[in-house]
Amino acid sequence: MAAGEKGQSKGEQIKGKLKEGAGKVTGNERLKAEGRAEQAKGNAREAKEDLKDGVRGTVDGLGGDKHRPTR
């Protein structure tokens, strides 16, 4: 996972958890829902990056890295 993407996904998850908690404390259902949505967005971003890493590892394991341009 790229460091920037990982940081962004964790940031979204933390921000969402804080929003959800604030919504619970204040009884604000909309804020709770926003928090859950923010967490889901972070989870989805993390899953996407994990999938990309897995595919990249599989391709590299098959020798596909010989044909991929260097970065």
List descriptors.
71 residues; CsbD; UPF0337 protein; YjbJ_sf
Describe the structure in brief.
The protein is mostly helical and 71 residues long.
Describe the structure.
The chain starts with a helix and ends in a 10-residue tail after the last helix. The chain has one domain (3-58). With 71 residues, the chain is mainly α. 80% of the residues lie in helices and 0% in strands. It has helices spanning 3-26, 29-61.
Give the rounded overall mean pLDDT. Answer: 87
Q: Pairing-aware structural class of the strands and helices?
A: mainly alpha
CA distance, first residue to last residue: 15 Å
Net shape: rod-shaped
Number of domains: 1
Number of strands: 0
**What fraction of the residues are assigned to beta strands by DSSP?**
under 5%
Largest sheet, in brief, is: none
Low-pLDDT residue intervals, each spanning 5 or more residues: none
Q: Considering DSSP H and I runs of 4 or more, what fraction of the residues is helical? A: over 70%
Output the radius of gyration. Answer: 17 Å
Separate helix tally: 2
What order do the helices and strands follow? HH
